[in-house]
Amino acid sequence: MLFPIPMLAAGGLVFAFHESTLPGRIILILLFTGSIFSWTVMVTKFRVIRFAQRRRNEFLDLFRADRQPLRIYTDRIRFEGAPVFAIYKAGCKELTFQLLGSSEVDETFRGRLEIAPKISPTQMRVVTSAMERAVGETALRLESQMILLATAVSGAPFLGLLGTVWGVMETFADVAAAGSANLAAMAPGVSAALITTVTGLLVAIPAMFGYNFLVTTIRAMIVELDNFGAELASAFEHKYVEHAERPKTWK
Question: Can you name the residues that pair with 119 across neighbouring β-strands?
Fold first, then answer.
């Protein structure tokens, strides 16, 4: 038995798909759907992280150029898309609430801020806790949808292997029913069975590289958020916290 010439000319993958059974095609459709989701997540995350890094640099340049840690907050400058700005906003909001009893920025905000008494270390710990919560919430947003990539990396090869084993099993069952085994009879079934493994690997390999890159980058961004939170807390401590002097002890 000779293979159809048009199928050979179209390529092995097309021939294998044409010869695949219904379970194999269902698995191929599942793998194709998973590939679409994984590529969508990777492209979206790459764009979000790139934009976040650019906005982070712009924010840090402005923040570190001024000795007033609340300047960006009082001027109502926004750096949407920068995770560090979310930490900064949460810290400033809680600090101004502790200083003034309100975090709303109005026309009297600067005047009230200049005459406001400094806060205590206990109140500063509340501000620090607010920034820590913001770090946790931002980290969750950065890590969202990563489960889809992890599923594609670990699940696609096994799903492809299932299709291959199923197809080979059906091929041998057909050969046994026919009562004769030859290469021409077995080759189409084996080829159709192997296409699911190939497709599973084509889904998993790009997802693996994308997942590793994104996980490493996101972890580095979370460490940067922790470091910035510590830097901001230090700036608040120096300017807005009243540290009571320890009473002198006489020997």
Answer: 241
Tokens for 250, please give them.
């006489």
Rg (CA), the chain: 30
Tell me which of 31-35, 36-40, 127-131, 185-189 is least confident: 185-189
User: Higher confidence at residue 16 or residue 128?
Assistant: 128
Distance CA 104, CA 106 (A): 6
Q: How confident is the model at residue 20 (pLDDT cuts 50, 70, 90)?
A: low
Question: Which of 97, 15, 52, 66 lies closest to 224, judged by CA?
Answer: 52
User: If residue 47 lies in a helix (H) or strand (E), which one and from where to where?
Assistant: helix 22-64
- With a pLDDT cut of 90, the percent of the chain lying above it is 46
Q: What SS3 class is residue 179?
A: coil
**What is the Cα–Cα distance from 59 to 88, expressed in whole angstroms?**
10
Separation of CA 126 from chain center = 29
User: Are 84 and 224 within 8 A, CB to CB?
Assistant: yes
Average pLDDT over residues 217-240: 92
